[in-house]
Amino acid sequence: MTFQLTAPPFLRSADSRKRQNKRPQDTKPDADEESSDIVTRPQTLAEKIIARAAGRDAVAPGEYVNVTPDYTAFQELFWPMHQKNMAIVGLDKVADPDRLVMVIDHTTSAAMGSEHTRTHRTLRDFAAKQGIKNFFPAGNGLRHQMLVEHGFARPGSLIFSDEGNIASIGALGALNFTMSWEVFASFYDTSNWIVVPKSVRMNLVGELPFAVTTRDLVQTIIRDYAAGGQLLQSCVEFAGPAISKMSLDARQTLLSCLFHAGADTAIMAADDVAMAYASERANGRPVLALQSDPDAEFAFEATYDLSKIEPTVTRPPTLAGGTPISTVAGQRVDQASIGSCANGRLDDLRQAAHVLRGKRIAPHVTMYITPASNTIYAEAAREGLLEVFARAGATVLGPGCTTCWGYQGVLNDGEVSISTQQFNYTGRNGSDKSDVYLSSPYVVAASAVAGEITDPRPLLKQKEAA
Amino acid sequence: MSTLLRGRVWKFGDDLSGDDGIIEFSVVREQFGKLDEVVLKAMCFRKVRPEFPASVKPGDIVVGGRNFAHHNHVEVSAAIKYSGIAAVVCESCETGFLRKALNFGLPVVVCPGVSRIVKDGETIEVDPVSGRVEASGGTLAAQPFSERMVAVWKAGGLVPLLKKTTEARRLSA
Questions:
Q1: Measured between alpha carbons, how far is B134 from B124 in angstroms, rounded to an integer?
Q2: How far apart, in Å, are the Cα atoms of B63 and each of A25, A59, A137, A307, B14?
Q3: The whole model's pTM is what?
């Protein structure tokens, strides 16, 4: 499939009064294609991206369409399964090595000796043999970061990946589709079927209050929607005046956690900030500033006033248990961790450093901080953040998923962790008798200092006053 | 292989968890990915319908409510398939469940309104290729499977399909 550098017909400004609300399958096969007014259904942002990847003028929610993703992203934990299936299916050459992005991010310290180190070796050899240039060995960082930092995910692109949190790339107007182990199919075919999701619009207005972050916002959204099933098979499109006030890091936090609310994927239209970031890294690849048509259909719309959000903690063992911090303040913690695809970026590290500067973590607490990529790690070093962490008594880990899945930061019976990680189900970080609470970097850092779950605002206000 | 399926209905309500409802994932967690057919068949739906494992017959069809099989590891799809269920028709479900099931050779047809047209124990007709769903209470039109989805289903799953197409490419090369 060739990349289009000129806008396809449905993206050119057309008189929307002439557009008819027809589903693509209602159009007669012998319809006059010469007309400059394409008879098509107004499209949402997600529908436009899918249509482009499907070679179609328009798509409708619920349709099963074949798309050719710009890239398919892999992580190494599925590798033993991929190897087993490759032995059954047989593989000479992968279908298109340039469309594959393979990242080792879960088992980063395997070099210290574990069975994972064998996987790293075979992956390296496989990538070399198959001519897969986009191979990122352990230490580079999370695949979420590789996708944006290296320009694989760009405005208008469609990406296949294994997991729903990779919707973080939606901050650049790129659309993620979760395939789980089925990313394997991309070794054999450059296209695969997807369901066109319904588009749901969430308007963000107002401004986040002092010490409140998009992690608190998304926990609130998850609490509102996770149990009800309203977001099944949907793409949540965030819009509204609040977005331009959010950094790209903050937007990625919001999008990376949204799948816990039940949505298939999430996105926002790329604004100037996102376009600038993506254009710097595009290397000649297309960057498409797409937006939903003004008369596009959304399954429903909701509005969040950010000024009403407060510091939120999600109690174990489910993700729907987001609660105001006051309800859990005072809970003793043994471990604190900052990182993961939700909160491992520079802004998150800056927030943690802001709290930890000049402080020490409580004597009974172990704290881990993991930058999500080597680029972020280097920038954090340059800004002096790593020194702040070290002097506070925290341990900085090499870029990877680390504490999020209990690969590092294992908890014993009865131990409690407060973390920015993605999941808190029973046994996630080790013992089935351990608990993981989820929150923002501010809350995690303040809790590490106090030795118990703590509202960060008094400490931060003190720092402002000083 | 005819794509019209007809079978006895096992009907379930809304919000039935996959990992903690259809199966007990915590029991099989240690063997994640190994898929023990005997163990999974024995636990399938027993939490909500204790008679299911002993009474289910090959060709029976599951009708689920809203948010069917939420939170599901691949063991959930495997258990349903191993039990001999020919298809799942549900009000709504996660796309992830649809994918995992189809990759296992189990068609899942999302069909809003299905709960209203059929009762437990009755017969339902489902054709994933045309999308037609019919029972005593009426006929509904679900989204037809795409060509590729039909191919995955007919091959018995994703890996069998890829094996077939890879061999075909080799022979024609």
A1: 6
A2: 28, 28, 45, 44, 10
A3: 0.92
What is the Cα A310 distance to its own chain's centre?
22
Q: Find all residues with CB under 8 Å of B67, minimum gap 6, and list them.
A: A229, A232, A262, B14, B15, B16, B92, B93, B94
pLDDT tens for chain A, 466 residues: list them.
Answer: 333 333 333 333 333 333 333 344 433 444 444 444 456 899 999 999 999 999 999 999 999 999 999 999 999 999 989 999 999 999 989 999 999 999 999 998 766 667 888 889 999 999 999 999 999 999 999 999 999 999 999 999 999 999 999 999 999 999 999 999 999 999 999 999 999 999 999 999 999 999 999 999 999 999 999 888 999 999 999 999 999 999 999 999 999 999 999 999 999 999 999 999 999 999 999 999 999 999 999 999 999 999 999 999 999 999 998 999 999 999 999 999 999 999 999 999 999 999 999 999 999 999 999 999 999 999 999 999 999 999 999 999 999 999 999 989 999 999 999 999 999 989 999 999 999 999 999 999 999 999 999 999 999 999 999 8
Cβ contacts of B103 on chain A, cutoff 8 Å: 182
Q: Identify the contact set of chain A against chain B, taking CB-CB distances under 8 A.
A: 62-66, 81, 85, 88-91, 178-182, 184-185, 188, 192-193, 195, 197, 227, 229, 232-233, 262, 264
Measure the CA–CA gap between A408 and A405, rounded to whole angstroms.
8
DSSP label at B49?
A: -
Q: Which two tokens stand for residue A98?
A: 């340039």
Report helix, strand or coil for B58: coil
Residue A406 and residue A397: Cα distance in Å, rounded? 13
- Strands A435-438, B5-11: pairing kind: unpaired
Strands A312-314 and A322-324, bridge-based pairing = antiparallel
Q: Is B168 on the interface with A (CB under 8 A)?
A: no
Confirm or reject contact between B130 and chain A (CB < 8 A): no
Task: Tell whether the torsion through CA atoms of A214, A219, A220 and A224 is positive or negative.
Answer: positive
Among partner residues A62, A66, A85, which is closest to B159 by beta-carbon distance? Answer: A85
Partners of B67 on chain A (C-beta within 8 Å) are: 229, 232, 262
CB contact under 8 A, A91 and B166: yes
Tokens of B59: 């060709």
**CB of B46 less than 8 A from some CB of A:** no
Decide if B163 and A90 are in contact by the 8 Å CB cutoff: yes
Pair B131, A176: CB distance under 8 Å: no
